[in-house]
Predict the 3D structure of the following.
Amino acid sequence: MPLVAAIFLAAGAIFAAIYGAACCWRPSSWPRTAVKTASVAALVPASAVLGAPLAITLGLLLGAAGDFFLSRPGERAFLAGMAAFGAGHLAYAWVFWASGSTVAVIPVAALVLIALSTEVWLAPHTGALLWPVRAYVALIALMALAALALGPVHRLAPIGAGLFVFSDLMLAIERFVTTDPRLGRALSHLLWAAYWSGQALILWGMAAGAAS
């Protein structure tokens, strides 16, 4: 691995560890925003150096923008964050489909059922954000479906996509469903670990595929 890529990956991992250990459950602040954004922003130059597809680098950049907005208070910032992540999912889906082949029926059926289940346990709690949340669910489901088509050479990327989906499920519960602060804090730690690991594995898997 090129030294420059290793430095950026290590920096991202350090920022992610700091955010997960000391920041993810705290109220919004500019230091918290900086650490959260930097943890994924550091993966962007690493992606470029490792030769990952341009859509992966773009998806990571949009993810960093999404992290910035989601770390800020207010509904408008939340909507901007969802829009950035939704665009990132489209970038990922495009390159996954372009790099994939066939998809097994059972994983696809399970993913579709998970997406549809949000109408039961999530949609009733979203209020005015119902349609933006529905649109986001559709976009991340599309990204994950595309990831299921990836072959063995990209084997880490579907795992990363699965972790991304899991992190967003936990985020939905933490933001819209639970009212227990202790559960909310536990979910914050869990979803952050899954999210950052998912982004890193998508990068790693797609870079490995591009190099093969």
In short: The chain has a mean pLDDT of 94. The chain has nine helices and no strands.
